[in-house]
Specification:
With about 170 residues, the chain is mainly alpha-helical. The chain has 9 helices and 2 strands, in the order αααααααββαα. The chain has a two-stranded antiparallel ribbon.
């Protein structure tokens, strides 16, 4: 507590014995600390925060708290607090958590998949709903297999293919 508030341990002992000036400062600093932690708690309760924003906020947790205490206080997982501690070790408190980037799919492949899925051979407009398009194949896996057969040079996973077809 003394390191967080910037007060020496001797001053804290004097405060315990009744020095009112130090006691007032200690109470004021503790109240300010509690206010900051409550604001962090409210911010972390926002469901619209991304994982990286949560990690940014959790890096401000005092290192003396420990992972379980921080997770309980802020109502987050211990994994998230641990991740924030790891990022803090590699960076300063204001450093950005860098999101992982996967392999980027070539735009030509994306365009070919969309064109393949939108082809009249594979899709049709649903009667009565002009803006709805239905895929004619019973299983999208069959459509994926047909795409891979016609375009073996293009590397694309079935999950990405499905996501692009169903856009």
């Amino acid at each position: 507590m003394s390191t967080i508030l910037g007060i020496s341990e001797d001053d804290m002992v004097e405060n315990a014995s009744g020095t009112s000036l130090h006691n007032t400062k200690l109470k004021s600093d503790a109240a300010a600390f509690d206010e900051i932690m409550e604001k962090l708690k409210v911010k972390l309760a926002n469901p619209d925060l991304t994982r990286y924003q949560e990690i940014q906020l959790l890096k401000m947790v005092p290192s003396t708290w420990g992972i379980i205490k921080a997770a309980d206080y802020f109502r987050v997982t211990t994994y998230l607090v641990t991740k924030a501690c790891e990022v803090l070790k590699n960076d300063d408190i204001f450093g950005q958590a860098v999101p992982r980037t996967g392999r980027k799919l070539d735009q030509r492949v994306v365009d070919k998949v969309i064109a393949f899925c939108c082809d009249d051979e594979h899709t049709r407009i649903v009667p009565g709903r002009s803006e709805w398009v239905s895929i004619r194949k019973r299983l999208i896996k069959e459509l994926y297999a047909e795409f891979r057969q016609k375009h073996p040079q293009h590397e694309i996973s079935s999950s990405k293919f499905c996501a692009l077809c169903l856009k």
